[in-house]
Specification:
Elements: E1 4-5, E2 16-21, E3 26-29, E4 32-33, E5 39-44, E6 47-48, H1 50-53, E7 59-62, E8 67-70, E9 79-86, E10 91-92, E11 95-101, H2 110-147
Parallel strand pairs: 2-11
Antiparallel strand pairs: 1-4, 3-8, 5-6, 5-9, 7-8, 9-10, 9-11
Domain Ig-like: 3-99
InterPro entries: Ig-like_dom (IPR007110), Ig-like_dom_sf (IPR036179), Ig-like_fold (IPR013783), Ig_I-set (IPR013098)
Transmembrane segments: 112-135
Length: 151
Amino acid sequence: MAPWVLSGSNVSLEGTEIRVKAPFPFFIACYVEGRPKPKITWLKDGENIEEIIENNDEVSLSVDNQILDFKFAKNKYEGKYECNVENRVGHIQPSTNVIIEGEALGFSDPKLVIIIVSFTFIIVILFSFVIILVIKNKKDKNILNDMLPLQ
């Protein structure tokens, strides 16, 4: 019997959409049945998911590869996920599009952190110079006032 998608899956042959709020966990379920038991492999944006899972404790497969589990929703996990299901009788490829909502401006990006810290440092230095100039100007005015003869 050719493989088919069971209810309870959040993928479909027509494609679905999963919206996830960062940084919360989420999963993609591809519950399938077939005789003989089908083999399941996952793709993200057309590439094998093994590259994402390898050396990554944030993403894992479970229940005979039917569940792709994410510990945290991050922008890097956004994309089209396909559940490639096949046995000797047939092949199906249900899919879903994962959209991550509300991730803070990527403070996980080291370049952005460096830019923000540098910008803040420059602002602090400029502000300090302005304060020093104001204080110096006020002192100079006081000295001039002291030097003027009383009338």
